[in-house]
Structures are given as C-alpha cells and as structure tokens.
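In the current project phase, work has continued on tokenised descriptions of protein folds. One protein thus recorded appears below exactly as we store it.

——
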Amino acid sequence: MIRALVPVLLAVCAAAADLPAWTVKNPTPDFKKVKANGIEKPTLKFGMIKLTDCVPIVAARELGYFAEEGLNVSIEVQPSWKAVMDRLVSGELDGSHCLYNMPLGAAIGAGAQAELVVAYNICINGMGITVSNGLWAQAAEQEPRLKEPGYSLPVSATVIRKVADARKTAGKEPLRFFMTFPAGSHNMTLRYWLGAGGVHPGYYDGPADSLGKRDADVVLTVNPPPQMASAMAQGNCDGFCVGEPWNMQVTLKDGTGRPINPSQYVFDGAPDKVFAVSKVFAEKNPKTLHGVVRALIRAGKWLDATSENRRTAIAMLACKEYIAANPEVLAESMVGTYVYGVKDGALDRRPEPDFNVFYRRHASFPWHSHAVWGLTQMRRWGMVGETKPDAWYHDVAKKVNRTEIYRTAFASLLAEGKVSADELPAEDSRSYPADAFIDKIPFDPATPNDYLGKFAIGLK
C-alpha cells in the first residue's frame, strides 16, 4: 500500500510545496486594554477538536488578535465532542470550537441539558461524506457513471439505497456510517443526504435517545473525528461524515476511501461549526466576550482575504500543539481544492473554493435562520419529540444564537476601519432557494412546520 501511494503523495506535495514554516507564538496581551475595556476575565482557555475548521480560533491567537484585546488565550485539544460539551458546562473551558447543532441540542436536552451561547459562527460548509473503497466499488456497479473521470456532482444517496437493499436481500449486516455527535452538524448533514436519496437513517425517540435507529435502513454510530481514518482502515465502517483533514487523510494518505459528496452539495451554506460559551460565562463576562468576538471576526476575515493567508493558516494547524497532521493533506480543502479519488497515481483534484468559508457570504454571522434550520432537522429525525409551533423554533434560535453580541462587536470594528459595512447582513434571518439543497426543497425560516411537511422521509 505504501509503495502504491508514493506517486500520490508526491503529487500532493508538489501542489503544496510552498507552504511556509510556522513556530507557535506566545503573544503578549495588551494589559492596558484589560483595564480600559473593563475585561472581567483576561486569562482564558478555549477548546478545539483536531479539525481544520478550528482555524479562526488558532489564527486569532497566533496572529495576536486575542492579545490586542487584552486576552491571554490558551487552546487545548479535546478528545471528543462529548468532552467539549462536558467541559463547557463544568466551566473547565471558557469557550470552544463546537459542532453547529450542539448548543441547540443542549437547549432542548439532546446530548446534554445546558444553556450555551453562540455569538460567532466559525464557518459554513466544510464537511465531507466519505465512503470506503468497497462501498464505492459497489456504488459504481449500481451507477456506472461513477467509473468515469470527471463524473458530475452531487452523487445521490439513491445509489446507497440500492446497495443497502441488496445487502438486506442477501441477509447481510446493514451498512454502517459514522458521525461525530448525535446533536451535531455531521449527523444532520449525513442524514439529510441519505434521506434525500430515499435511505432512512433512523428516528430518535425523543431527546434522551442517543442511538436514533428506529426504522433505519443503515446504522449511524458516533465516533470522534480523529478516529475516523483508523476506523475505516480497520474496516469498521462503510462511510462517515466529518470535517477535514480526515476525508483527505483516507483518500490521499491511507488509500482506504474517497469522498462521495462534500457538504456544499447537500446544503450549500449549511452551518458547520460555531464558537460557544456557557450562558453563565456570557452573563458574567460580557466585555470579555465582546473582545473574543472582535478577535474572531478579524481572524475569519483574514482567512478569507487571500490564498497566502490560507497557506499560513495551514502551517499553523500543522504544528503539534494543534492538529499535528500532514500539511499537504491539510492543504487540500483549505486552499480551495478537493481530491475525489486516486486512480493509477493520478488525482481527481477539482476546484472547490466554497468548501471552507469563514467570512465570505456572511459566514461568521450567527444567523437565527441557521438555528431554525438545525432545529427542523432535529424534529425531522425525532430528537425534538413532539410537534412544536413555529414560534418555538424562533424563540430557541434567538436564545442560543446571540446576533446582538456579534453586531455590537462588528460595529466597534467598523468604527476602527477593520471591517466594511457590507460585510454585515441587514437581517438576522435569511431564506435559502431550492438550488441550495440536494433535494431542491427551499427553506423559509419563517415557516418551519411548513418546511418539515415537504420531506418524504421524516417526522412532521
């Protein structure tokens, strides 16, 4: 296997040969800002999972943006999303990189019961759905176009439906997919893709059910992001949904699988990760949180400003203090390309400039509409155990996604000339057209129950 992958790795290295070196910084906080700005808690510990989309937090520290706000921030790698949730609730972490739906799940008691606040959206898109080589081969037999170079995207899950039916007829175990947390963006994205193709991913019996297997055609199981690649290498799953670099790891480094769809082909503009704090922290430390959000907004803007900035960010992430992954593998999604497969040493590398979006398209704004969409998916699959009025979706969205905190931080940056007025949306919600979704079902956040009624598979 290693010998077979040598030309692949050389091609990857050649594409990212000019990546800069990076030494982790130790920025000195501007202590004058602590007193001048009334910072309640200047020393902070933030959490992250080993995923490239943690990068606004890393960049805000490494570029000194936190320090300029008078904040002394350390970043600690966490072993799992459950650990992130537990440590946010206990106060061991002051804030963290989080899956999009985690704070919404906590608000309704799915995965945890806690009050979390989101004042900054880390990114949109950024997830990959990857299948094993074995499942890809079976899918290609069902849909021969997948054998041809340059096949079109998206790939519908109808092909998974055919494979799942064949396994059931043969009396074999159902297909097994991994995702990272029940109340999380990877689970919602994977379920959306499967459901759009006629594959039932299973219902949850209310927020206390962590399995969600009722009526399922396939099995979905939780697995931490850094363990995805090893799980596929060991043959423990047929596919997974996770952020980078783990989709590219199995494609370019391990040779055990390949992406079948990035998330922008499932829902273009989908929320992926957020920066969350506890409600207690937000209420005790409003000026501290203001400074944190200012620094994160600047970091997101920096990331989307130039390709050179992205390359610098890759070098940051490759350090052992953060992801400690192969920088060439990290580079694929971060520099706007994506490899869909390898054949005879040749890479099916395609431009994907919207795989990781941190600031463009108002990506860092904590939209109420994103929260409403996330809640509709939790109701669709049974995490919300009963029908709720439209007003309930809006109330929970406003309680969790605190747009006013973001707007206040943005206004202060605007006054300093660090951002532009057109980089802030006028409203807190927006609709998405049919073309944004793989199933061509448009989303209007004003009417969540009407939206739920449009799905062929799902609770109403």
In short: Residues 1-11 have pLDDT under 50 and may be disordered.
